[in-house]
Every structure is written in structure tokens, then in C-alpha cells.
Design the sequence.
């Protein structure tokens, strides 16, 4: 007589670590992964992923998923809000569709909800449905950036900005939203 065993899918283990706690090999692997995932990745894009918390997924000793959340300031309705800005979300092509992206975002959304006034990210068109299904909301108002030359309109980014509201911070998604300055893509 044989015994049947039901197996449940293995939960993805996500490691959370600050940039300062990652060794050079892990940072290099994360950068390489993101350059493989995104055909338009730049040095500034990589830099935007640094200085905060990284969510990392390894399989068989290889990094197959990365995302990070960094602190930024967003101006909304006369207030400067502490924002957990999500950057560098990518899963190796041959490992997609297995819940790794959701596991990365679960970890970062927990950080955003417990440590920030709101979450925000700039979503590529192909990722917008993924974020919306997770409760991220498309910003409907106008976007701006606080640049060295003053506040400037960022109209090209209007349809790409998604926010994750928190219970403590009411948001009016139809008003203006201004981000702090950084080199490269400001949003």
C-alpha cells in the first residue's frame, strides 16, 4: 500500500537588509539582476535603489528577485510626507509567475505601512495592473518635482505614479503631488 502526500507550495523566503548590511557580492548581484530585467536601466536608477531596505529572494544560492524601499519626501496638500518609495523591483525572467514579485512587495508594503506616511512608486505600463491589484492607487492629480531651479511640472509622469495610502495619512489623489529632487528620473 502506498501513501499519498499532499504537498503545499514552498513559501518564498524574503531577506530584508539595509544597503549598509549588504556585502559587495550581493550588491553586484542585485545590480546585475536589475540590468538584466530592465533594458533601460541606468546608473542613476541603480543609485535610487540604494540607501534603504532591500528585499531579496535567493534560489539555489543565486539572487533571483530584488526590490527596495528608500525614504523620500513628497509634498501633498501643504504637508511634507515621509514616503517609502519603492525602487528596483525585478524578478529573473525564468522565475517569474511563481509569486516572487508578490513576496517582495509583501515585505516592502509591511515596511511602508509601519514606517511611512505613504508609499509611492513609478510603475511601468506592464506592471501597473500588478500594483493596482495589490491596492496601490494611481495618482490622478498633477505631478511636480522640487528641482534646484524651483518646482517644475513633470507631466510625462502623471499616469505612472502609484501610491499606497496608510490609515494615518489621508490623501486626495486628485491634487498636486511634488517629489524631492534626485539625479536621473525624479519619479
Sequence:
Amino acid at each position: 500500500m502506498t501513501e499519498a502526500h499532499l504537498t503545499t507550495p514552498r513559501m518564498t523566503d524574503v531577506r530584508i537588509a539595509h544597503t549598509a548590511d549588504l556585502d559587495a557580492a550581493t550588491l553586484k548581484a542585485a545590480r546585475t539582476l536589475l540590468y538584466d530585467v530592465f533594458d533601460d536601466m541606468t546608473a542613476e536608477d541603480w543609485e535610487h535603489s540604494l540607501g534603504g531596505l532591500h528585499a531579496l529572494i535567493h534560489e539555489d544560492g543565486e539572487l533571483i528577485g530584488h526590490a527596495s524601499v528608500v525614504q523620500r519626501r513628497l509634498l501633498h496638500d501643504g504637508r511634507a510626507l515621509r514616503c517609502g518609495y519603492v525602487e528596483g523591483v525585478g524578478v529573473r525572467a525564468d522565475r517569474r509567475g511563481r509569486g516572487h514579485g508578490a513576496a517582495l512587495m509583501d515585505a516592502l508594503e509591511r515596511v511602508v505601512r509601519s514606517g511611512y506616511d505613504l508609499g509611492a512608486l513609478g510603475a511601468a505600463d506592464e506592471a501597473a495592473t500588478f500594483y493596482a491589484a495589490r491596492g496601490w492607487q494611481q495618482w490622478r492629480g498633477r505631478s511636480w518635482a522640487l528641482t534646484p531651479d524651483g518646482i517644475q511640472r513633470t507631466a510625462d509622469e502623471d499616469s505612472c505614479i502609484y501610491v499606497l495610502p496608510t490609515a494615518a495619512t489621508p490623501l486626495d489623489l486628485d491634487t498636486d503631488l511634488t517629489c524631492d529632487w534626485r539625479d536621473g528620473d525624479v519619479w
Remarks:
- Helices lie at 24-37, 43-48, 100-115, 128-133.
